[in-house]
Specification:
144 residues; Nucleotidyltransferase, domain 5; 5 helices
Length: 144
């Protein structure tokens, strides 16, 4: 079984881990759309499940940045659907509570937790949430 964690937005990533919690694939969202779509491909869809973080516009966020974020979020949802991935949406509060890393907006909190759970991976701010979302999926989602 492969579990995907998708952190939408330009500074997010897509992480794939196996049923033992080992990293299989990690692709940052600041790559090309083709490379990002391929992060979802090459897996047997019956053994694939994922979660995408359900987020909306932020207070005081500009119109242009809100639009760009919405485009990225929609593109990633489209990738999941096109690749045949079963997925759920999860709010930051829900997955952060489950993963014991309520950040309150401090990315260092989630980065530190991701590094604890994935000690052999060089965790950066752009990949931390995707890794934690993938682990959340592994702990809470479908099993074959």
């Amino acid at each position: 079984m492969i579990y995907l964690g998708i952190d939408p937005g330009k500074s997010g990533a897509v992480a794939a881990i196996d049923e033992r919690g080992h990293l299989v694939r990690l692709v940052r969202n600041d790559t090309t759309e083709r490379d990002l779509f391929e992060a979802f491909c090459g897996f047997e869809t019956e053994n694939l499940a994922g979660v995408i973080e359900r987020v909306g516009a932020m207070p005081k966020q500009g119109v242009a940045s809100t639009f760009k974020f919405g485009v990225s979020y929609g593109f990633l949802r489209g990738c999941l659907i096109a690749a045949g991935v079963r997925f759920d949406e999860v709010t930051p509060a829900k997955w952060q509570s489950a993963m014991k890393c309520r950040s309150g907006g401090d990315k260092n909190v989630t980065k530190q937790r991701a590094q604890q759970l994935f000690p052999g991976v060089k965790v950066i701010h752009a990949t931390a949430d995707a890794l934690l979302l993938a682990e959340y999926a592994r702990r809470t989602m479908w099993r074959p």
